[in-house]
Specification:
The chain is mainly alpha-helical and 511 residues long. The chain has 20 helices and nine strands. Helix 16 packs antiparallel against helix 17 and helix 18 packs antiparallel against helix 20. The model has no long low-confidence stretch (mean pLDDT 94). Pathway: Amino-acid degradation; L-histidine degradation into L-glutamate; N-formimidoyl-L-glutamate from L-histidine: step 1/3.
């Protein structure tokens, strides 16, 4: 019997949408019956290794540089507990609750594949923490992204042991107090379990996966904000002709041109080639090429995310059917580090082009509109400093877009001599997403103001909805007022996804 609002995990079929439902929608989690059998089978094999005192990395040996140190049967539990305590070295702000929930779900999903040797009872404790909303306090910094996200994941496991700190019902408590209040019994780790819980890419993947989900929505909304500006500046729609884009044959470019035509359909503000002007500037004329490239990049990252959220990233991996344990490198975050660096660059370019359009809107030498979109310039500054803010965010993005994945610092006495820095790449992508979201919000607000100076306007099917939603939140700017209040209202509109959802429900799904 399947329960509503419950996500069933088996290690192979988790989707990004399900991840978001657990992370943000607080859906509960349950392990599938098939996965339970795989977990139990893998665990029996680990117990056999311990009983026979075979020398297997991480089960009967130390870790990293200490892999040549053999651990006796009576010390394997101490080994796992010591691992967690010593590796909990994170620093910085705590991850948001939604990120922590995503981390926990991804670790459960990876372990249910049945290649890690964890006990079902231990895994159920982590599931119970998700369902009862005990959220470990996990510092953002400290992972090299290889061997997995060791430090932050150790902070997650501390709470399972009744140690560390956790958030419960919005309050930061000791791990023991949080577990007690949620009526969850702390665990004692058995052989291999500590390593199984922390050796993987689930932190960097959780951060990057949520950013990817939001990036898909924001890329669509960037087409909407560009369309509003296109109308305010009387853009030429010939550039969206399908014939043009078929000749280049880039999927994202073709999708964007279709979006723009759909959003602008019915507008009387757009023009044809030669009616008013021969060509638009690149930030208008090349929207399909610029936005399309970012869409293609985001789709590339999405493919990597879909693979990684269902991947076995533990070390060693246990192949009980083959009577084999392989010490490997699936914990290495490089596949995702490169992808999340790419995601950050793609998002930064959406902001770059949007800021250039904002500048064209407020600059009377370029727009044909009143300077800074105010009727009484001099006495009022209008949207002058809104463009400054957008420029500041774009400049910060350029610093953040420097790739983390090209860096590596050897660790563990040079045993781990190449690391991915994937967690840094993921956090940078998240931060660029934050900035770009705000630049797009400023463009929406600025373009709506620009449209106030176009008489007898009839907006497109999509832009009309966007304009009206902006105006439901913020009135036309007739004289200067505190601008950050207006900007925050449109940021909230953007991050709620209400605008993109309403536009898609009215004119069809954007690409």
């Amino acid at each position: 019997m399947f329960l509503l609002n419950t996500i069933y995990v088996d290690g192979n079929n988790l989707t990004l949408e399900e991840l978001v439902k657990v992370a943000r929608g607080y859906c509960e989690v349950e392990i599938s019956q098939e996965a339970i059998q795989k977990v139990n089978k893998s665990r029996k094999y680990v117990d056999k290794i311990v009983e026979k005192e075979k020398i297997v990395y991480g089960i009967t040996t130390g870790f990293g540089k200490f892999s040549n140190v053999v651990i006796s049967k009576d010390q394997v539990e101490t080994l796992q507990s010591s691992l967690i305590k010593s590796h909990a070295c994170g620093v910085g702000n705590h991850f948001p609750v939604e990120t922590v929930r995503a981390i926990m779900l991804l670790r459960v999903n990876a372990l249910t594949k049945g290649y890690s040797g964890i006990r079902l009872s231990t895994l159920n404790t982590l599931v119970e923490m998700i369902n009862k909303q005990v959220h470990p306090a996990i510092p953002e910094k400290g992972s090299l992204g290889s061997s997995g996200d060791l430090a932050p994941l150790a902070h997650m496991v501390l709470v399972m042991l009744g140690e560390g700190e956790a958030y419960y019902k919005g309050e930061l408590l000791s791990g023991k107090e949080a577990m007690d209040k949620a009526d969850i019994k702390p665990i004692t780790l058995s052989a291999k379990e500590g390593l199984a819980l922390i050796n993987g890419t689930q932190v960097l993947t959780a951060v990057g996966a949520l950013a990817t989900y939001d990036a898909i929505k924001l890329a669509k909304l960037s087409d909407v904000s560009a369309s509003l500006t296109f109308e305010a500046l009387r853009g030429i729609t010939d550039v969206f002709d399908e014939k043009v884009h078929l000749l280049r044959n880039h999927i994202g470019q073709m999708k964007c041109s279709k979006n723009m035509l759909k959003i602008l359909e019915g507008s009387n503000l757009t023009t044809r080639q030669g009616e008013i002007k021969v060509q638009d500037p690149y930030s208008l004329r090349c929207v399909p090429q610029i936005h399309g490239a970012s869409k293609d990049a985001i789709n590339y990252v999405l493919d990597k995310v879909n693979k990684e959220i269902n991947a076995a990233t533990d070390n060693p991996l246990i192949f009980s059917d083959e009577d084999e344990v392989i010490s490997c490198g699936n914990f290495h975050g490089q596949p995702m580090a490169l992808a999340f660096d790419f995601l950050g660059i793609a998002l930064a370019e959406l902001a770059n082009s949007a800021e250039r359009r904002i500048e064209r809107l407020v600059n009377p030498a370029l727009s044909g509109l009143p300077g800074f979109l105010t009727e009484h310039g001099g006495l009022n500054s209008g949207f002058m400093i809104a463009q400054y803010t957008a420029a500041s965010l774009v400049s910060e993005n350029k610093v953040l877009a420097h790739p983390a994945s090209v860096d590596s610092i050897p660790s563990s006495a040079n045993q781990e001599d190449h690391v991915s820095m994937g967690s840094i790449a993921a956090r940078k992508a998240r931060d660029i997403l934050y900035n770009t979201t705000r630049v797009i919000a400023i463009e929406l607000l600025t373009a709506a103001q620009g449209l106030e100076f176009r008489e007898d306007r009839r907006l497109g099917k999509g832009t009309r909805i966007a304009y009206e939603m902006v105006r439901e939140e913020v009135d036309k700017l007739s004289e200067d007022r505190i601008m950050y209040v207006d900007i925050e209202k449109i940021i909230n509109l953007v991050t709620s996804n209400k605008m993109i959802n309403q536009i898609e429900s009215s004119i069809g799904e954007l690409l």
